[in-house]
Amino acid sequence: MKDPAPGAGGKSRPEIESLIERALHAPEYFQRVEAIQQIDDEELLVRIAGNDPDYYVRQSAVEKICNEEILAKIARYDPDYYVRLAAIKRIHDCQTLAGIILNSQDDYYICKDALHGISDNDALAALVESLTDRDIKSAAVQAITDQKILGHIARNNQDFYVRSDALKKITHQPTLEEIARTDNDYYVRALAVQQLEDPAVIRAIALEDPDYYVRGQAVSRISDMEVLLQIVRQDEDFEVRKKAIYNITDVTALKRLLDEINDIYIRRKIRMRLEELKDH
């Protein structure tokens, strides 16, 4: 530690030496904290942050340290959460924060706190690819705002849950339509369908998707009576047809279906729907 210059900060050498003595050796933690609040010597602050037995004293010292390399070590190795959090809040370099996250995956909350400091979407995307903990991956995806990057993750990440997390944040309709029409995973397609806005695209998926679950998700978003009637008449899956029936509000159309359809289970659902509409 450098020898304190007399009169530094308006204090005499004896006053500075007294502050240092109290910061290092005062018997009560609050006495040490009070002294630290009047000290700007980085070397002394680092010494206190690394050695004081009281977490609040260490935290108070950390809150005045500027060296991000030292702060990163404290963020990784201090045994107390609040001291580590104080260090993270002082770090502004995205790569330093990313390094802390990659090496602290056993501590979800510290990783999440560090993610709050990263605004670079490319850095966040790189983290998603490198992380092994699923919950922290999800938190990293949640921090991404770039629609193009989210689209890439939703299409290409190997982890289904990560893809789903990215998909839920996408608002760009052409990307959602592409995923809803072409993704190999039926559940990912179904998630995309839930976020589509174009009725024509939703209708096409309800009629054409090879998976009943995806068709069902699309049907649940359709209110066009003629399309719903077409699905009840033509779809091969009972659940899809049932969803279409429960979206039909036209009593005359439902009665017409009763005259056309022979399937006893579908007829039963039509009658149940007619009873519901009668009660309302």
**Strand composition percent:** under 5%
Structural class: mainly alpha
Count of DSSP strands: 0
Shape: elongated
User: What percent of the residues sit in helical stretches (DSSP H or I)?
Assistant: over 70%
Could you tell me how far the N terminus lies from the C terminus, measured between alpha carbons in angstroms? 81 Å
Number of helices: 20
Order of helices and strands: HHHHHHHHHHHHHHHHHHHH
Uncertain stretches of 5 or more adjacent residues: 4-8
Fold blueprint:
Blueprint: H1 13-25, H2 29-36, H3 42-51, H4 55-62, H5 68-77, H6 81-89, H7 94-102, H8 108-115, H9 121-130, H10 134-143, H11 147-156, H12 160-168, H13 173-182, H14 186-195, H15 199-208, H16 212-219, H17 225-234, H18 238-247, H19 251-260, H20 264-279
Helix pairs in contact: 1-2, 2-4, 3-4, 4-6, 5-6, 7-8, 7-9, 8-10, 9-10, 10-12, 11-12, 12-14, 13-14, 14-16, 15-16, 16-18, 17-18, 17-19, 18-20, 19-20
Describe this structure in words.
By secondary structure, the chain is mainly alpha-helical. 71% of the residues lie in helices and 0% in strands. It has helices spanning 13-25, 29-36, 42-51, 55-62, 68-77, 81-89, 94-102, 108-115, 121-130, 134-143, 147-156, 160-168, 173-182, 186-195, 199-208, 212-219, 225-234, 238-247, 251-260, 264-279. The radius of gyration is 31 Å and the shape is elongated. The N and C termini lie far apart (81 Å). The model is unreliable at 4-8 (pLDDT under 50).
